Amino acid sequence: MRKTAARPTAKADTAAALQEALVVATHGRHCLVETASGARLLCHPRGKKLNVVVGDRVHWQPSGDEGSIIQTLPRRNLLYRQDALRTKSFAANLDQALLLLAAEPEFSERQLARALIACEVARITALIALNKADLAAPFARAWARLAPYRAMGYSVLPLCIRPQTAACASGATAAATAATDGLALLEQQLAGRSTLVLGPSGAGKSSLINRLVPGAAAQTGTLSQALASGKHTTTHTRWFWLDQARAAALIDSPGFQEFGLHHIGRAQLAGCMPDIGPHTTQCRFYNCTHLHEPGCGVRDAVVEDADFQTRLAAGANPISASRYKIYSELFAQLR
Fold first, then answer.
1. pTM, full prediction
2. Given the DSSP bridges, would you call strands 125-131 and 96-102 parallel, antiparallel or unpaired?
3. What homologous superfamily is domain 10-72 in, according to CATH?
4. 87 and 53 Cβ atoms separated by less than 8 Å
5. Per residue in 231-245, pLDDT tens?
6. Terminus of the chain with fewer CB atoms < 10 Å: N or C?
7. Which CATH architecture has domain 78-252?
8. Nearest Cα to 118, choosing from 78, 153, 76?
């Protein structure tokens, strides 16, 4: 008796129809995905429990003129913030995060510290860039405030993102001259990497995107139209390619006023702060909170901000008083 070939099952048919794509924009339950050929189309996650963020690699299948996302592929990392009420995801599968600050208005060091801690937890390399170097006096003050972060080993770059002004172009100040080189150095740091741009409103994220991505404004309008999000272009995260080879990308994110860290436990906190973590090995007690215990290596290393540079130059490994205050406040707030 001749055997007939087994008929493919519905499950096998579905698996064969799945295609892989990159999520390049999200807004609510709407997602824009990019296929291997570079085509982009609107997709919707199948099922309310399927959480999709920009940077995800997903399996999807056609559904009329649009598509359905069936599953997300395993992530290398995910950067998110969490407060008492909700979790807000920024992006997944990142090579690094660029924390963009401005000399004016004055940036919040607490926000900066929180974002850096979230990067440490997610094991995502963080860069810091200080914009508006053409504002000499405010820039000098802000640059001095970032001294502890340079001492921790973070790359801190000076920038002048706005279109070339007379100050930036003529080298009227040392800071402005450094900023001209800073943009070129930043581009070197971005090459071949996917980089999430984080920062408060007014820091210059949109200006940076427009400087580095040709036609970014037009792309933003296209993404917003595709996602049916109208003019609310700052309410969703967007992926921009920096080169034709699609090897480097900038991910633009909405500005934030708060950066919740409720997903981090108190015991993790010191280890997520590079200036504090190394001193914990000098504590007398293994479960030291670094707040009041005797023989605390962390508290012994704290110096006044005015003395920080002097102690650093002398070969010490100090903790600035402002950074220790941030640790103390965060410890009190975390569960």
1. 0.84
2. parallel
3. Nucleic acid-binding proteins (2.40.50.140)
4. no
5. 444 457 889 999 989
6. N
7. 3-Layer(aba) Sandwich (3.40)
8. 78
Which run of H or E residues covers position 114? helix 109-122
The tokens of 196 are what? 């999430």
Identify the pLDDT of residue 228: 55
SS (H, E, C) 16-39: HHCEEEEEEEEECCEEEEEECCCC
Range in 55-64, 154-163, 184-193, 284-293 the model is least confident about: 154-163
Euclidean distance between CA atoms 314 and 319, whole angstroms: 14
How far apart are alpha carbons 302 and 279 in whole angstroms? 10
For the chain, domain boundaries: 10-72, 78-252, 266-333
pLDDT in tens, 196-224: 999 888 888 888 988 898 776 645 555 55
And the tokens for 14? Answer: 């579905």
Q: Pick the more confident residue, 163 or 167.
A: 163
Q: Which residues pair with 241 in a beta bridge?
A: 249
**DSSP-assigned letters across all residues of 182-223:** HHHHHHHHHTTSEEEEE--TTSSHHHHHHHHSTTHHHHHHHH
